[in-house]
Amino acid sequence: MKKALINIREFFWPLLEEESEETGSGEKDIHLIISDENLEEAFKQKLRTYENEEDRRKEIEKKASLYISTISIATSIVVAANTLITGKQEYGLPIKISVVITFVLTLYAVRTVWFSTKALERGNYSVLDIDDFNVEGGKPQFYKKLIQSLHKITERNQSQINLKVDYFTLAQEYYKRAIIVICIYAFIILIFCFFIPAQCSSPV
Question: Domain-by-domain residue ranges, the chain?
Fold first, then answer.
């Protein structure tokens, strides 16, 4: 029964699932057993992983910005249409339905913008600095130090990026629900105007 209620709540009002906090496993040095001749290739692969995480973060922020702009425009159109309808009619059934749907749409739009904004928030990200390059010894020591540093930075930034992904996922869920509500709104207006014209006509 409880699971069914949770599923119903998730269908209408998704929430962010609580996860156990990570203990910062990326802070520890990894034991490198890579041979010296393969260190350069290992460094390239680790750098690619770091860059992929950065690209993932940028893509999330790009999509979050797009959600904010599109949901704002869609909501404005519906609100304007609702204002036009309510301004020409008596307080009948179409008006009540329109107001309820607009209220639900506003809630979904606000949640979409809220979580999109959370996904766009600046976080504390680690980057390579001079200490990571200032290494004594030859190439093997240099590459080993960079691999260790990139591993720590990638793991450290990953939790922040994953949080952005969670926020974006919720924004996406509310965005989809807002689009569904807009479709329902348009369908109901169509029904009232073409199949029940008396309900959609202006009062004399």
Answer: 37-200
